[in-house]
UniProtKB/TrEMBL annotation:
Top-level taxonomy: Eukaryota, Sar, Alveolata, Perkinsozoa, Perkinsea
Gene3D superfamilies according to UniProt: 1.25.40.990
Organism of origin: Perkinsus marinus (strain ATCC 50983 / TXsc)
Name of protein: PCI domain-containing protein
Residue intervals of the PCI domain: 157-342
Domain of life: Eukaryota
Biased composition (Basic and acidic residues): 22-31
């Protein structure tokens, strides 16, 4: 009979071929009982901590808790609700519309993004507690907030607004035009592909079957599906070519991709370049910095050297030794994947 490996269980059979239960002594039974008692105490504490309190439950806006605001202040700081919204602190739709137009016309480029983001979040909160989701004003705020968040590379705000807009699209909203619906569906497809969210990608593809044909065959959707296919195949070189083309000739590709797709690709450009560099360092023995700069689509070789230095990749004499760099690149790609937002 071969010797069992370390940690491998062995099954002992009687002469009749029936498995015999293992024998447990009294001390082992006591240890198991004490361990079970400890876990019961931990579970009870966890349930108490995870159960929503009255303040947390009151933050969720439901039809029974909707209010009609009476506040007339245009500028309002965003504060997280810890109790039911008060009527005197919530702005009605007419005031929200004026405040939003003021942000668009006067304050967009005069104030920092932190201030603009806080004002938009306060507007969204006032709409939420009044049950205005799905209205024209609500969708205008969410779409504008998503585009501004991309310009400011605020991925968290972009995800929140993108989810709100696509939720209305998939529920059959007729407020948004076909171009806007195709724009945000394209953002959803490309974002889930660049993040590597497989379930979200499958969900997006299934939902595309139920949307109108005019939107499904839109140029934005076709281009987004092509980018998703390249990301799934690991063809990061083509994605970087699209990124470079959008950066250098935005008007030429304006009818093929949404206006803020360049900003979305800009957020993920470092991740895409690291993944492509991982493939290059695995395939070659040595690579010149000039060659890497062309593959990774940097504007200049100086930008490529800065990228290599930032990621601790030695490039003495304008040459990198791929075997020395591959392990470091793989670790950094894994670290980026662990920090994914979504």
């Amino acid at each position: 009979m071969p010797r069992p490996k370390f940690g491998q269980r062995t099954t002992v059979y009687s002469s009749g071929g029936v498995r015999q239960p293992p024998k447990v002594d009294a001390d082992e039974l006591k240890r198991r009982a004490a361990r079970a008692a400890r876990f019961r105490q931990v579970d009870s504490k966890t349930k108490d901590q995870n159960s929503p309190t009255a303040d947390e439950a009151s933050e969720v806006a439901t039809p029974e808790r909707y209010v009609k605001g009476t506040c007339s202040v245009l500028e309002k700081d965003y504060l997280r609700l810890t109790a039911p919204a008060r009527v005197e602190s919530v702005r009605p739709p007419s005031v929200l519309s004026v405040a939003f137009n003021r942000l668009q016309q006067e304050l967009r480029y005069e104030k920092p993004w932190e201030y603009i983001s806080g004002q938009l979040r306060a507007i969204r909160q006032d709409m939420k507690v009044q049950g205005l989701d799905g209205s024209q004003l609500s969708l205008d705020v969410y779409t504008t907030n998503a585009r501004w968040a991309l310009e400011s590379q605020d991925l968290v705000q972009f995800i929140q607004c993108l989810s709100a807009v696509t939720r209305q699209i998939h529920t059959g909203s007729v407020v948004l035009s076909d171009n806007v619906q195709a724009e945000f569906l394209a953002y959803e497809i490309v974002y889930s592909a660049l993040q590597g969210f497989q379930l979200d990608q499958m969900r997006c593809l299934r939902r595309l079957r139920s949307i109108p044909r005019s939107i499904r065959e839109h140029n934005f959707i076709r281009s987004a599906l092509r980018l998703r296919s390249w990301a799934a195949l690991g063809d990061y070189y083509r994605i970087l070519k699209v990124y470079e083309s959008l950066r250098e000739q935005p008007r030429r590709f304006g009818k093929m991709l949404p206006s803020h797709m360049l900003d979305l690709l800009e957020i993920f450009s470092e991740n895409i370049r690291l993944r492509l560099l991982r493939c290059l360092t695995k395939a070659y023995m040595q690579l010149r910095v000039s060659v890497i700069s062309k593959w990774l689509r940097f504007p200049t070789e100086g930008d490529c050297r800065s990228f290599l230095s930032h990621h601790d990749l030695p490039h003495d004499a304008d040459v990198i030794v791929c075997k020395q760099c591959n392990l470091n690149v793989r670790r950094q790609v894994q670290a980026l994947e662990c920090r994914r937002v979504g």
